[in-house]
Write a structure and sequence with these properties.
The chain has 14 helices and 13 strands. The strands form 3 sheets. It has a 7-stranded mixed β-sheet with strand order 2-8-7-6-5-3-4, sandwiched between helices. Strands 9-10-13-12 form a 4-stranded antiparallel β-sheet. It folds into 2 domains: about 15-25 and about 260-340, Aspartate Aminotransferase, domain 1, CATH 3.90.1150; about 35-255, Type I PLP-dependent aspartate aminotransferase-like (Major domain) (Aspartate Aminotransferase, domain 2). A hairpin with a 4-residue loop joins strand 12 and strand 13 (about 320-325). It is α/β, with parallel strands linked by helices and about 350 residues long.
Length: about 350
């Protein structure tokens, strides 16, 4: 299969991330035709349409369109956790490893972490981490989950585990924030309805600019009464934007046309892993669109591959990360595996 918009330049295959996708011609046309207004004044009809659409998909009462996934996580968590309070998350969670300490810097939030297999909590592990509210004890204010988990290799939470975690959180009376940047991939991989995922979160961030291929933007799902506070926080963080409907139109197009095709990315990731293993490399079996490869010299191997036109991420000294997306075809995956094997 050849994904829509697949790379045609035989000298370049970019597997660094699914954020490198470029808008398709049809998406660009939708952006060009978008009706716009000033979103800071709440007057952009296309932004409003996007927020309503995403809220309906997940069964949430309210949504907020923001520039980035980091901002969506930050605002969502800060509606649940105050300064000087504690959030429990995986030690390799995106909010802990890749968001520049923003929750501590801007929100005064303390993280309590544990390292989990494939980045996925079990209810038993969480029960040991949750601290009740006692005198002179910092109580757990919220739990954060990441689905799919980036550093876990695109790992997907089993639905039964999510349900058990939500039941545990409710038992302690604490909310759950889900970083669902790639929850679309979890939905396609498991068939779990998006509304089911929505029912298991108190706040939920979803990204439009990764596998869905929009150029910019994430959406935060939250309670209706928390939305005014979230809008104000977005503005304080520099996220107030004007005729953002141009970008919202890309998000709407992505939701209408690019969710089901994520199955192509998953198939290409499996092909890539199988081919890498056939070439003797220790590629882990992907659950979605992320392939982790254990090598002794990740930065050096990534640099050598780049010289041959294949871009991958060194995810540490001994791990490569390869991410399939709508600009990567089967042919690109086969070529990338061959180049990495020779690098």
């Amino acid at each position: 299969m050849t994904a829509a918009g697949a790379a045609t330049d035989a000298t370049s295959v970019d597997l660094r991330s699914d954020t490198v996708t470029k808008p398709t011609a049809a998406m660009r046309a939708a952006m060009l035709e978008a009706e716009v207004g000033d979103d800071v004044y709440g007057e952009d009809p296309t932004v409003a349409a996007l927020e309503e659409k995403v809220a309906d998909l997940f069964g949430f009462p309210a949504a907020l369109f923001v520039p980035t996934g980091v901002m969506a996580n930050h605002i969502g968590i800060r509606t649940l956790v105050g300064p000087g309070e504690e959030l429990v998350c995986d030690a390799d969670a995106h909010i802990a490893a890749h968001e520049d300490g923003g929750l501590a810097w801007h929100g005064g939030i303390q993280l309590r972490t544990a390292l989990n297999e494939r980045g996925l909590f079990t209810p038993e592990t969480l029960r040991q981490l949750i601290r009740p509210r006692l005198p002179h004890t910092l109580a757990t204010s919220a739990i954060e989950l990441e689905n799919t988990h980036n550093r876990g290799g695109g790992s997907v939470y089993p639905l039964a585990t999510l349900e058990a975690i939500k039941e545990l959180a409710d038992e302690y009376g604490i909310p759950v924030h889900v970083d669902g940047a790639r929850i679309w991939n979890a939905h396609i991989a498991t068939g779990t309805p998006l509304r089911t995922y929505g029912e298991l979160a108190d706040t939920l961030s979803v990204c439009l600019s990764k596998g869905l291929g929009a150029p910019v933007g994430s959406v935060l799902l939250l309670k209706l009464e928390d939305r005014p506070h979230a809008v104000a926080m977005r503005h304080r963080l520099g996220g107030g934007w004007r005729q953002a409907g141009l970008l919202a139109a890309a998000g709407i197009y992505a939701l209408d046309h690019h969710i089901e095709r994520l199955a192509d990315d998953h198939a290409n990731a499996k092909l890539l892993a199988e081919t890498l293993r056939a070439h003797g490399l220790a590629a882990r079996e992907p659950e979605t669109n992320i392939v982790l490869v254990d090598v002794p010299d990740a930065p050096a191997r990534a640099a050598r591959a780049k010289e041959r036109g294949v871009l991958v991420s060194a995810f540490g000294p001994t791990m490569l990360r390869l991410v399939t997306h709508l600009d990567v075809s089967e042919k690109d995956c086969l070529r990338a595996a061959e180049v990495l094997a020779r690098s």
